[in-house]
Amino acid sequence: MSATGYGWLVLAFPFAGMLITSIGWRVLPGRLPGWIASAAIGLAFLASIGMLIEIQDRPEDARALIDSAWTYATAAPDFRVDFAIFVDPLAVFMCLVVSGVSFLIHVYSVAYMGGDRGYARYFAYLNYFVFSMLLLVLAANLVILIIGWAFVGAASYLLISFWYRRTTATYAGIKAFVINVIGDVGLVIAAFLLSDKTGSLDLTAIFRRAGEVFPQDDVTLVFACIFILVGAFAKSAQLPLHTWLPDAMEGPTPVSALIHAATMVTAGVYLIARMHPLFELAPTAADVGAIIGTATLLFAATVALAVTDLKRIIAYSTISQIGYMVLGVSVAAYSAGMFHLMTHAFFKALLFMGAGSVIGAMAGIQDVDRMGGFRKAMPFTFVTFTCGALALAAFPLTSGFFSKDDILAFTINRGGGYWVLAIVGYIAAGLTAFYAFRMVFRVFYGDPVPEARELEEGHLAHHDPANPMTGEAEDTDIGFPGPEHHIAERDWPMKAAMGPLAVLALIAGVVQVPGVSDAVENFLEPSFADSRFADTAPTVGAEWVGLVVGGLISIAAIGVAFRFYLRLPGTTDRLRERFSGVHTFLVHKWYFDELYDAVFVRPAATAGSFGRRVIETDFVQGVIVGGASGVVRTGTSFARAIQTGYLRAYALLVLLGVAGLGLYFLLTSS
Amino acid sequence: MDVVWFLVLSAFIFCIGAAGVMTRRNPLVVLLCLELMLNGGNLALVAFSRMNGGQAGQVFALIVMVIAACEVVIGLGIIVAMYRNRLPIDVDEMSELRG
Amino acid sequence: MWFEQVMFFVAGIGALAGALGVVMLRNPFYSVLALVAHLLALAVLFLLLNAQFLAAAQVVVYAGAVMVLYVFVVAYIGGADELLRPESGAVGAVGPVFAVALGVELCIAFIGTGLEAIDTRGPDVGGDFGTPSQIGALLLQRFLVAFEAASFLLLVAAVGAVVLARRRRGLEEPPPRREADAPVETLEVRA
Hints:
Chain A is mostly helical. Among the domains of chain A are: about 280-530 and about 535-585, no CATH class; about 595-670. Chain A contains 26 helices and 4 strands. The N and C termini of chain A lie far apart (about 105 Å). Among the domains of chain C are: about 1-80, NADH-ubiquinone/plastoquinone oxidoreductase chain 6, subunit NuoJ (Four Helix Bundle (Hemerythrin (Met), subunit A)), CATH 1.20.120; about 130-165.
């Protein structure tokens, strides 16, 4: 089968899985929906491998294939809207990462979501999400790209508000969706500008013509690229459109792992990488992307130092790491950025899975301050979580080490102002290592908390179901989490998912060791062959220098964390008191939510209530509706007043009529 | 006498009857005033019949008399029913058919 | 000739007096009597117009039967004096004005009309103008439908009157008399 044939299969399997689980949700017993969904994604992964093999069989310059299934409309010979997929190394790479990590997360969810009343619905949504993500990745024209983009946003909303009876979850879903829509608008405007100027919706045609139509740094192109960035930042939770991602932790933990760590949030990075010919023609926009990526990664790293909800620490870590990826693809380190995307998918999904296991042991509590000493009770989770944390911290020789420092080396190599970005990147890398091990030491070391003690004795702790953020009491019926709590030590699907990811988090770096094996770079090269920065890659020596610097920073930061948390416990409390102002600022996430609330939400709410009170109630209902009916009523009340019921008045009216008629005839006949 | 005198007289009778319908409150008297109006009409009919030389007007007036009789019968029946149901005999009190 | 004119004026004044009496007398019984007088005057006027049968019918049927019926009902009802109340209302004040206006209009219409024969006595009619035989022949030939319909109407009216005024057996006592604000009071014996 050809590569594009496999491409259609990659799309078809998750779609079929979604249909089966959603239509047959009543008849599929027990955990069968979960296994069906996982099988669908597993088959999609196999099809991606098929795509990979087929692509690699072809000569290097013939690895970009387009296949169109159905043409919806044709306006001009070039301006076609068709359902077409574009298979090239970048797309295949993304398909492999997305389907592979999704498969493991599906397996994890089979156990994690057991006992939840919405089990089949969950897997239907999850398959729908994977289908949408793959559609986005394989899109050959702007229309399919936008469709996939929107579907992914919808899937995110559905899954964030999965436990829909929790008001915090529904609010978080709405927040995510609204911010996503802002990004959608940006993307659509960019699509319009591009298709208008280049006369085509097809991605390859746009890239080909962009060089002819747009001079360097043309204003329209810069604006189009900035709108693309708006879309990318909304989807990837970069400043200033990042506020939805921490709140999206209201969704189930595997959802956080899949959508908000490994795949959906990386769609923005993929978009910038895919649109790289345009960004290279508009360096201003690329610089904007790099600066915002850097600002984001520093901002998120600082906030992750202070927040206390375990999932939110990991969420801010995600925002930060995606900042690295955005920085990477904005400075034309495409393969480095994509490589970091892959390793990040591994270790971030692993961290979330581990967090899910810990939260299961804590019977739903997510507050890091209430956790401690789980090392003995949950050995498997401890080991895998630490593997993920090491990769996140870019500890030497882990996958994160090679990928993150690759980006920073590239950035330095661009020279000039990029040095500043690189230095900020290194600073944030230090902070990242610190908070990664903040999590490890807080959760697994120290005195065992009661829940850990209970687990050591052999039974899972149990608390009354409550909202982890607000503490409101809940029940375990549909719309809320189920009554069961699952940990990796007891449920083999969770182990089966976390184990491979732990291994990958540690060793996946071997595919891109500078100077030794440039597998990723070589694989992706055909996609980025037209990049004008293709030859600005740093030398192997420079890369190794960067790697060493990064490794040292990482080890040093882990050492500091070790000191603060293990050697001198209480240090962080003292620091918190001493720098209470800074701490408050960080815990409130630099007051972004409050700022947006004051600038956007309150005025909108005021406008809305004004509209309801004044315009709707007073004006429309009062004046227009009430006025119209009032006029009619007043008019008719005059007419009604004639019907007095008094006989004599009627007689008078009759007489008046007769007299009137007589007068009329008198006058007309004379 | 010229026919026109009779017609003027009939007009006067008619208008006096109309004024009575509008002024009086006792339904019996109102009915009587209605009779006045009918008689005014009858007089006009007969006068015109005499003017034209045909007797159709007289037949018309005869039928009008029949109708007046029927109407009186029914009207009085209503008034008797009112009296029987102890309602006040006053047209202004019978005002429930109103909008 | 002069006899006719005199009779006309006498009967006319009588008719008008009767009419005014009907309208203005307070006691309904007196109003009925005034109407009877009016009807008789009208009968005389009919005679002046060569409508003998009609005059007879007027006296016998109208004044003789219908008014007798009226008298019975007035006696039954009680026919108390109607008090002059200030709340005769706007209708009571305005009504007569419009009635006068209508009267003026009609007079203008009659007097100023261009009808040819209206200023004459009318054509010479024979002796059997207005005789019962003539009226009868017309009723049975040309105006048969009207005749039959009128008789049917009489039947309906009779049945309706019986229905309206019958006493219903088995019903509870009629509700106590609802007194309006003293328009129609029974005669109080004042000390």
